[in-house]
Design goal:
Order of helices and strands: HEHHEEEEHEEHH
CATH architecture of one domain: Roll
CATH superfamily of one domain: Pleckstrin-homology domain (PH domain)/Phosphotyrosine-binding domain (PTB)
Helix content: 40-55%
CATH class of one domain: Mainly Beta
CATH topology of one domain: PH-domain like
Number of helices: 6
Strand content: 15-25%
Radius of gyration: 26 Å
Structural class: alpha+beta
Length: about 190
C-alpha cells in the first residue's frame, strides 16, 4: 500500500536557487519607492536601519521547487504566501529583464495559468532565480511531459473510418431535417 502512495506522490525534480543580488535589488528598490512617496519618506530612516535585516530574512524564506506534477513557491516573513501551481495549468512562463533588473544581473519569470488570472496579470512572479532561463525550460519540459500523457491518443485511420461510417446516417438525417426547416421558412 505504501508503494502505491509513494508512486502517486510527486517527486522533486529541482529546487530553484535565488541570487543573493536579489537582496540588494529589493533593499534599494524599496528605498527608492519610499523616497518617492510622501508617507514613505517618514519610514526611510527606519528602513535604512532595519531594512537589511528584513531583506535577509525575506531572502532566507524564499523557496521554489519543481516537482513532477507542480511548481511550489513560498515566501514571506509576516505574511506567508504558499502557492502550488499544477504544471498542466501553466499556459505561459515569460522570462523578463528590465533595465533595473539587468543592472543587478537579475531577471524574473512571470507564470500565467489557464483561466486563473485577470487578462495581462501574472498568477505568480519569481524574481531573482539563478539560471532562470534553464529553470524556465525545465518547467516547460516537465509541463509538456504531463500534458502529453493526458492528451487523448491518436486514433488510427481505420478506427476513424469506422466511426465515420457510424456517423454518416446521423449526418444525413440532420441534413434532411435542415432541408425541411429551410423549406418551411423560405
Amino acid at each position: 500500500m505504501s508503494n502505491i502512495k509513494n508512486s502517486r506522490r510527486a517527486q522533486r525534480i529541482t529546487e530553484a536557487k535565488f541570487d543573493p543580488r536579489l537582496k540588494t535589488y529589493t533593499f534599494w528598490g524599496t528605498t527608492i519607492s519610499m523616497v518617492i512617496t510622501i508617507v514613505g519618506i517618514v519610514i526611510v530612516p527606519f528602513w535604512l536601519i532595519f531594512g537589511k535585516i528584513y531583506v535577509n530574512r525575506y531572502f532566507d524564506n524564499l523557496f521554489c521547487e519543481l516537482t513532477t506534477r507542480a511548481l511550489h513557491f513560498k515566501k514571506g516573513i509576516w505574511f506567508h504566501t504558499e502557492r502550488t501551481i499544477p504544471l498542466d495549468k501553466i499556459q505561459d512562463l515569460t522570462f523578463k529583464e528590465g533595465p533595473m533588473l539587468r543592472y543587478f544581473g537579475l531577471s524574473y519569470l512571470k507564470i500565467e495559468t489557464a483561466g486563473q488570472s485577470v487578462q495581462g496579470m501574472a498568477d505568480m512572479t519569481l524574481t531573482g532565480i539563478m539560471n532562470a532561463r534553464n529553470f524556465r525550460e525545465m518547467v516547460l519540459d516537465q509541463r509538456d511531459l504531463i500534458t502529453d500523457k493526458q492528451s487523448p491518443s491518436i486514433v488510427s485511420v481505420s478506427e476513424r473510418k469506422d466511426s465515420d461510417h457510424e456517423l454518416l446516417p446521423l449526418l444525413l438525417e440532420i441534413h434532411e431535417t435542415l432541408k425541411k426547416i429551410e423549406q418551411k421558412t423560405g
